[in-house]
C-alpha cells in the first residue's frame, strides 16, 4: 500500500519556521496502531490523518485525527491548519470553508479574504487559579506570578525575557497530572500582545514550536487582562511563529500562514 504524505510548516511565514506537521489524506481510517506507528516514524510533534466524512448536520467535510509520536490527542491547531492548506493547495478543494469532525467537535478553517492566512475556529478553554504541584515550579526553573489550569497548566510571568530564557528540566515535567505546561508573558515587541512556550515531554513533545491548541487558553486570558478581543501572539520557541487571534464568545479564531516543505509517499 502506498499513501500520500505532505510535510507543511504551519504558523510559518518562511520555510523552517513555525511548526512542521505531517498530513496524510486517507480514503478510510487505518488501524489505530498503524497511524500511531506512522506518527512515531515521522517523529514530528503531530501527524494528521483525514478522511472524507459527512457531519451530524449533513454537511460534507473530513474526519480529522492527530497523533504525536506517543499518543493520539484531542485537539491540535497547527496540524489542522496544515491539513486545510493541503486540501486548498494540493487536493483541489474548491470552497473557502472546510469542516473537520474531531474529538473536540466540529472545527472549521476558512480562507482570510484579505491575506494568504487561514483562520481556525476552535473552542476556548476555561482556566481556574490553582496551587501548583511543588515539583512543577522546580522543573520549570522560575517562579511565576500566577498559575492557572485547564487541560494544561498555564504559568504567567511578568517578563517575556523570563519566558524566552527558560530551560526546563524535562524529566521533572514527565509526571505532571495535566497534558502539558504553557508559559506566557506580555509581549516585548511592537504589535505583539503576548509570548508563550509549550512543553509536553510525556506526550513525546519536549517543546512544541507553535501550538494552536495552547492559544485556546492563552487568548481568553490575555483578552480579559488587556481588555481587547484581538490578540497577536508570538510563540517564542527556537523556530517561532505568530498567531493572529480573536476571542469570539466561547470560540477562539486563530489565523496563520503555511509553507510547504516536502511531499512524498509512505509505503506500508
The parts where pLDDT drops under 50 for at least 5 residues are: none
* Most strands sheet: 17 strands, mixed
Give me the CATH superfamily of the largest domain.
Answer: Diaminopimelate Epimerase, Chain A, domain 1
Q: What is the CATH class of the largest domain?
A: Alpha Beta
Q: State the secondary-structure class.
A: alpha+beta
**Any idea how many domains?**
2
Mean pLDDT figure: 96
Q: From N to C, what is the helix and strand string? A: EEHEEEHEEEEHEEHHEEHEEEE
What's the count of strands? Answer: 17
Q: What is the rounded distance between the termini?
A: 5 Å
Q: What is the rounded Rg?
A: 18 Å
Report the sheet-strand fraction.
35-45%
Please name the CATH architecture of the largest domain: Roll
Can you tag this structure with a few keywords?
single chain; 268 residues; alpha+beta; Diaminopimelate Epimerase, Chain A, domain 1; 2 domains; 17-stranded mixed sheet; 6 helices; 19% helix; 40% strand
Q: How do the helices and strands line up, and which of them pair or pack?
A:
Blueprint: E1 2-10, E2 19-25, H1 32-42, E3 46-54, E4 60-67, E5 72-73, H2 78-89, E6 97-102, E7 105-111, E8 118-123, E9 128-129, H3 134-140, E10 146-149, E11 153-156, H4 160-165, H5 170-173, E12 181-186, E13 194-199, H6 215-226, E14 230-235, E15 241-248, E16 251-256, E17 258-267
Parallel strand pairs: 2-3, 4-6, 11-12, 13-14
Antiparallel strand pairs: 1-2, 1-17, 3-4, 4-5, 6-7, 7-8, 8-16, 9-10, 10-11, 12-13, 14-15, 15-16
Amino acid at each position: 500500500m502506498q499513501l500520500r504524505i505532505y510535510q507543511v510548516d504551519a504558523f510559518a511565514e518562511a520555510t523552517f519556521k513555525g511548526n512542521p506537521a505531517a498530513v496524510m489524506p486517507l480514503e478510510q481510517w487505518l488501524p489505530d496502531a498503524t497511524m500511531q506507528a506512522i506518527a512515531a516514524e515521522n517523529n514530528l510533534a503531530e501527524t494528521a490523518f483525514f478522511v472524507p466524512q459527512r457531519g451530524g448536520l449533513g454537511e460534507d467535510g473530513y474526519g480529522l485525527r492527530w497523533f504525536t509520536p506517543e499518543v493520539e490527542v484531542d485537539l491540535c491547531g497547527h496540524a489542522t491548519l496544515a491539513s486545510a492548506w493541503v486540501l486548498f493547495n494540493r487536493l483541489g478543494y474548491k470552497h473557502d470553508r472546510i469542516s473537520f469532525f474531531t474529538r473536540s467537535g466540529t472545527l472549521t478553517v476558512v480562507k482570510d479574504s484579505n491575506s494568504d492566512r487561514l483562520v481556525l475556529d476552535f473552542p476556548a478553554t476555561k482556566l481556574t487559579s490553582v496551587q501548583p504541584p511543588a515539583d512543577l515550579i522546580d522543573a520549570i526553573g522560575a517562579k511565576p506570578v500566577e498559575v492557572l489550569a485547564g487541560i494544561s497548566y498555564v504559568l504567567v510571568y511578568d517578563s517575556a525575557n523570563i519566558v524566552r530564557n527558560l530551560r526546563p528540566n524535562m524529566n521533572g515535567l514527565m509526571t505532571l497530572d495535566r497534558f502539558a505546561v504553557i508559559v506566557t508573558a506580555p509581549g516585548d515587541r511592537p504589535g505583539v500582545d503576548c509570548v508563550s512556550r509549550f512543553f509536553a515531554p510525556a506526550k513525546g513533545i519536549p517543546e512544541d514550536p507553535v501550538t494552536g491548541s495552547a492559544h485556546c487558553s492563552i487568548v481568553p486570558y490575555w483578552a480579559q487582562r488587556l481588555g481587547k478581543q484581538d490578540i497577536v501572539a508570538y510563540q517564542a520557541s527556537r523556530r517561532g511563529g505568530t498567531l493572529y487571534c480573536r476571542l469570539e464568545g466561547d470560540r477562539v479564531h486563530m489565523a496563520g500562514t503555511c509553507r510547504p516543505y516536502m511531499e512524498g509517499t509512505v509505503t506500508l
